[in-house]
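Figure-free illustration: sequence to structure, shown twice.
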Amino acid sequence: MRLINMLKAGIPLGSFHGIPVRLHYSWLVIFALVTWGLSANYFPIGYPHWSVTAYVAVGLATSVLFFCSVLAHELAHSLVAQAAGIRVHSITLFILGGLAQIAQEPGRPNVEFRVALAGPATSLALGVLFGAISIAAAGVSEPLVAVSAWLGRINIVLAVFNLIPGFPMDGGRVLRSIIWWRTGSLRGATRTASAIGRGVGYLFVFGGIWMIFGGNWGGLWIAFIGWFIQSAAAGSYREVVLQDMLQGHRVSEVMMRDCPAVSPQLTLEELVNDYILGSGRRCFPVVEGSRALGLVTLHNVKQAPRELWSTMTLGEAMTPLDKLKLVEPDQDLSTVLQLMTTEDVNQLPVVDEGKIVGMVARENLLTFIHTRAELGM
């Protein structure tokens, strides 16, 4: 979850089938490294008679096509998920490849199986396609042969690597779907797949360290990938456990009903002195008469320059109601946790028939979970 929130920053590339696509800034690092490796080492060794300009141009073109291949891999996951009725929030390319942010866990093991396999199958198909192009272009265009041969190999490597049974990698998700299908328990399947995923991650870490001690600094990258896999595996299991504990419970069970409403005419200074400091609350509905206008939070206050607190009103500083994510009293708590995570917010207004009737905070959900865990429920 922390990874998803971290990757929200980036460069928008547009959208495909309604899915926003963006580049995280860390992608620029790996793009530069791949381009440099191809231009300064790989192509000069294989084609020593090329000019420096040719090395750079072909290296850049190959890097761009490689990351287009990674994007195709993630789009395959996303389109299969969409076909199954699952919303996809975004696709982000970052230093470790790509991430399709899918809104929820697949409801059935066969859906997860199809979604998980779609990416590696696409990479494998691209590998075969580029391999065929490199054969067909022999004797016609040496740069085309060089580019397509490398892309063919790297896409096949990408397909095989992603099928390693280390959850939450694609292979780990395939494994989870099979266990889920056999046992009928998503939580149990996730526990098993996550344990295997963490084991795979630690193998990568130890293998990377062994490579470093052997004088191969490429092991640093292997160890980093291993750390990422084991951390993601542990985090994914925690997420499923939380979702499982919240499933079937409603917002009305945990929401705060005694939320003091504030007037849009109040200044930020009055809000801080009369409401925030006295109550410790960080979030207040802004209401005029019986009409909800929006929400003002500690974040809104901190965004305003201190010298304006005495004059800026809550009506000016608040987040308007139409820009807020809202939940209803009978909404399932598992969907609320997903919404808080994807939107990176700590509290949400609870609305019933157009009126704010309370607030639900991440703290409420965690207290609810911890209490049930203590009681063995």
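We now fold a second protein in the same way, so the two outputs can be compared directly.
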Amino acid sequence: MNNMRTDDIEVKRECITKSLCVYLNEDPSSLILEFMDTDGASAQEAIQKAVMGIYVIRYEGTSIEDSPADVGVVLEGEKVLQDLCSVPYATAMLLGLIYGLNLSYPPELRYTFEAFQKLFLELDTNKLTNKVQALKTKLFSDVFE
């Protein structure tokens, strides 16, 4: 089996974002909606049903390392940003829109967005849920050893 390894930082950041969702027992497909470019009708239907998230349309037959056909942000079933360069960039734009428009986090991604806000952006860090506190403890345990 071929040893699959990439040095592309954007791919690593996308994988870390998805892994954070999984670690916090949340479904990464609730945040990142992925489609093939040949499946336009079902992609459009799923985007219209999405309350908040990131969509990625990939060319059929390509790997995650290849540039997607389109990356964008969805709010209330509408594409509010499109043709973004990567999933991590779209994640940053989504966080900016959430703060700029004073939106509530979707309940199914509550802990993921709390980690983004309180651990990575260091906003409102005085009270953490148990899940996010456990993650913070694990992340910083190596720093102080």
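Summary for the second example: The first strand starts at residue 32 and ends at 36.
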